[in-house]
Amino acid sequence: MDFDRAVIAALFAEEHVRLRGLLVRRGVPAPAAGDAVQDTFLRLLRAPLHEIRDLRAYLRRVAESVAVDTARRRRGRSPPATNACRTPHPPPRRR
Q1: CA 15 to CA 19: how far, in whole Å?
Q2: Do the domain assignments include residue 70?
Q3: Is residue 95 part of a domain?
Q4: Residue 49 burial class via C-beta count within 10 angstroms: exposed 0-12, middle 13-18, buried 19 and up
Q5: Radius of gyration from C-alpha coordinates of the chain
Q6: How far apart are CA 59 and CA 46, in angstroms?
Q7: How far is the CA of 43 from the CAs of 18, 49, 79, 84, 87, in angstroms?
Q8: How far apart are alpha carbons 35 and 41 in whole angstroms?
Q9: CA 33, 24, 21: angle at the middle one, nearest 5?
Q10: Mean of all residue pLDDT scores within the chain
Q11: Could you tell me if 9 and 57 are in contact, meaning their C-beta atoms sit under 8 angstroms apart?
Q12: What is the number of domains present in the chain?
């Protein structure tokens, strides 16, 4: 099939809310879900569109992959530094 950018823009208008919900259900934090939807559509724009039969099914599959990628990135980050690493009392003075 041959798709132009107007078709993709219309698809974004129709599907972005549903894809955002899918991503949140898959564990993507709500504040990051909007970026994940945009990443999903960017992947669609980079794909060989003439090989895609069902754009909505393709978007769902890509969104699932984006959710997995997001979870992997989140696991790879170290937690923020806290005061828990500090010693509660200063070490004793040496005489």
Answers
A1: 6
A2: yes
A3: no
A4: middle
A5: 21
A6: 12
A7: 17, 11, 29, 41, 47
A8: 10
A9: 90
A10: 84
A11: no
A12: 1
Q: What is the pLDDT of residues 47-73, one digit of tens each?
A: 998 899 999 999 999 999 999 998 888
Q: Would 87 be classed as within a structural domain?
A: no
Q: Which two tokens stand for residue 91?
A: 């070490």
> Can you give the CATH number for the domain in which 69 is found?
1.10.1740
Task: Please list the alpha-helical segments (H only) found in the chain.
Answer: 5-25, 30-46, 55-76
List phi, psi (to 5°) of 78: -80, 150
What pLDDT, on the 0 to 100 scale, is given for residue 4?
Answer: 75
- The pLDDT of residue 59 is 94
Does 91 fall in a domain? no
Cα separation, 17 vs 40, whole angstroms: 13
Task: Label residue 1 by pLDDT band (50, 70, 90).
Answer: very low
Q: In the block, which residue shows the tokens 């170290």?
A: 78
Range of the domain at 63: 5-77
**What tokens does 22 get?**
């899918």
